């Protein structure tokens, strides 16, 4: 079944003059709005296309990929306004409409907003800035340590709110953020914990021993590249540790603690050294 507002795999079934028709073997034929086939493509081949409803109410498709599909949340810029609403640049020739009824506040040309793409009651693709009502505050079926996709949202007194997998709210705490983030930014994150109240705490770094194991290898490699000496220790500022390894101070301390227990490094006030580095001198 053809999914409007999504990427579909459709077969090229007919070419008549400038018109190219596609279908999935079940639904009605879909006109390829691009008006020509990609290079080396012919009748009988399958294409990945984005399907939508055109201005005449007919199914149409394009090989161009939008910046967001139906059910996605994205950070998109307003390019024009008219009497029906605001129009966003989403990577396709026809801009994406945010009707006035789907705007929290009046939108402005040139500004970007977090929006969710949806199908209206006539199967037309539109967007809304009223995303809060569409997201859950509670943890669903997530597990601690699970990798997820994040979109950075608004700052709060505690840190930064983030949207998880286009469906849930989570929190990145300020004292655990060791890199700059900006609203609308997409990045991978991890479920840190599901709190007793169902709220979701997030981390940008993989929790648990697996993270420490991979970091120990990086620390040893950097020590080898620096003649067995590294001017970082468990007393170093978190910002210096993040700049060197992209992890929190807590994770770094766990890693060098593991290396120390294995008698692979020596820790002192100035930094860490390979345990066999003295043998080189």
UniProtKB/TrEMBL annotation:
S1 motif domain mapped to chain residues: 69-130, 143-205
Listed Pfam families: S1_2, WHD_CvfB
PANTHER family to which the protein is assigned, alphabetical: CONSERVED VIRULENCE FACTOR B
Family: Belongs to the CvfB family.
Listed name of the protein: GntR family transcriptional regulator
Species, as recorded: Candidatus Methylobacter oryzae
């Amino acid at each position: 079944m053809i999914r409007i507002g999504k990427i579909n795999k459709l077969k090229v079934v007919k070419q008549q003059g400038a018109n190219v028709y596609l279908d999935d073997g079940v639904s009605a034929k879909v006109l390829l709005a691009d008006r020509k086939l990609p290079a080396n493509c012919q009748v009988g081949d399958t294409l990945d296309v984005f399907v939508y409803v055109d201005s005449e109410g007919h199914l149409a498709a394009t090989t161009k990929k939008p910046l967001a599909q139906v059910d996605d949340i994205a950070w998109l810029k307003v390019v024009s306004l008219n009497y029906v609403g605001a129009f966003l640049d989403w990577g396709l020739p026809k801009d994406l409409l945010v009707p006035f009824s789907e705007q929290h506040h009046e939108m402005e040309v040139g500004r970007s907003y977090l929006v969710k793409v949806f199908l209206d009651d006539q199967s037309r693709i539109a967007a809304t800035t009223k995303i809060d009502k569409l997201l859950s505050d509670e943890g669903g079926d997530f597990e601690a340590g699970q990798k997820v996709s994040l979109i950075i949202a608004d700052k709060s007194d505690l840190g930064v709110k983030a949207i998880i997998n286009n469906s849930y709210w989570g929190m990145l705490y300020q004292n655990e953020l060791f890199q700059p983030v900006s609203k609308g930014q997409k990045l991978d994150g991890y479920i840190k914990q599901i709190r007793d109240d169902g709220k979701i705490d997030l981390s940008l770094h993989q929790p648990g021993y697996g993270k420490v194991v991979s970091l120990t290898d990086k620390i040893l490699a950097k020590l080898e590249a620096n003649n067995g000496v590294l001017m970082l220790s468990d007393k170093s500022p978190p910002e210096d540790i993040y700049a060197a390894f992209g992890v929190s101070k807590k994770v770094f301390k766990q890693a060098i603690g593991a290396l120390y227990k294995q008698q692979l490094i020596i820790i002192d006030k100035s930094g860490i050294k390979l345990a066999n580095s003295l043998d080189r001198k």
